[in-house]
């Protein structure tokens, strides 16, 4: 369900993270945050900030449909929410507008380096014109050969 990446070498802090994100087979949390908090003589808010500072919790179930990045949990609340979600898209790929902006800016930046602007439709027209001219000039030679 949840893969913990520890940001600390401290064994006690690691243990606290494990307790905070420990779930059973159904994905339900084994201990209440209040129980954990009272063990450490901290408030649940302090527990949460310690957990956030000590580990990164990644979902082993939810991966972005676009880039495959696993969903990151920053609290139990998000773990509970994601139980009902079948598919996941990361924040970056959730926003199609920013993606579009990025796409169009990529195009304009790739074209800005060219001193002569490329105009594909015009180029095609020139090519067609050249083709028709060559076929015209070819005809007399073919004709003269046949004659
Ligand atoms: Zn993504």
- Mean of pLDDT: 81
Low-pLDDT residue intervals, each spanning 5 or more residues: none
Number of helices: 7
Biggest sheet: strand arrangement: 1-2-3
Which structural class matches the secondary elements? Answer: alpha+beta
What portion of residues is helical? 55-70%
Q: Return the string of H and E elements.
A: EHHHEEHHHH
Bound molecules: zinc ion
Structural description of this entry:
With about 150 residues, this protein is an alpha+beta fold. The protein has a domain at about 1-90. Helices cover about 60% and strands about 10% of the residues. It contains 7 helices and 3 strands. The chain has a 3-stranded antiparallel sheet. The model has no long low-confidence stretch (mean pLDDT about 80). The structure holds zinc ion (ZN).
Structural descriptors:
147 residues, 3-stranded antiparallel β-sheet, rod-shaped, binds zinc ion
Q: What is the topology?
A:
Elements: E1 2-6, H1 11-21, H2 33-40, H3 44-54, E2 55-63, E3 70-73, H4 76-82, H5 91-94, H6 96-112, H7 120-146
Antiparallel strand pairs: 1-2, 2-3
Bound molecules: zinc ion (ZN).
Quick summary:
The protein has helices at residues 11-21, 33-40, 44-54, 76-82, 91-94, 96-112, 120-146, and strands at residues 2-6, 55-63, 70-73. The protein is an alpha+beta fold and 147 residues long. Strands 1-2-3 form a 3-stranded antiparallel β-sheet.
